Amino acid sequence: MRISYRPLWVMLAEREITKKQLRELSGISTASLAKLGKGENLTTDTLLKICKALNCSITEIMETVPDVRQDESICEE
């Protein structure tokens, strides 16, 4: 399993908020924003800053998805 921030990107698009605006609203660093874009792990503090800025819960900005490798091994069985 891995984390996907796809729900965050959908929310930003729906609210017409740019990544730059998200960074400014939440006070996260450009490095954290880059990690989000790459789907990398972030601290819970960073994720909570985003939630506070967007007035949402953590489950609204991230989800767990199966690893591609895991899917491939299931298909081979």
Question: Descriptors for this entry?
Answer:
single chain; 77 residues; mainly alpha; 434 Repressor (Amino-terminal Domain); two-stranded antiparallel sheet; 5 helices
Write up this protein:
The protein has a two-stranded antiparallel sheet with strand order 1-2. The chain has a single domain (2-76), classed as lambda repressor-like DNA-binding domains (434 Repressor (Amino-terminal Domain), Orthogonal Bundle). Helix 2 (19-26) crosses helix 4 (44-54). By secondary structure, it is mainly alpha-helical. 61% of the residues lie in helices and 8% in strands.
Blueprint of the fold:
Layout: E1 2-4, H1 6-15, H2 19-26, H3 30-38, H4 44-54, E2 63-65, H5 68-76
Antiparallel strand pairs: 1-2
Tell me the distance between the termini. 19 Å
Number of strands: 2
Average pLDDT reading = 90
State which percent range the strand residues make up: 5-15%
SSE run? EHHHHEH
CATH class identity? Mainly Alpha
Overall CATH architecture: Orthogonal Bundle
CATH topology: 434 Repressor (Amino-terminal Domain)
- Count of structural domains: 1
Secondary structure category? mainly alpha
By CATH's scheme, which homologous superfamily applies?
lambda repressor-like DNA-binding domains
> Strands of the largest sheet, in order across it?
1-2
Number of helices: 5
Shape: globular
User: What is the alpha-carbon Rg in Å?
Assistant: 14 Å
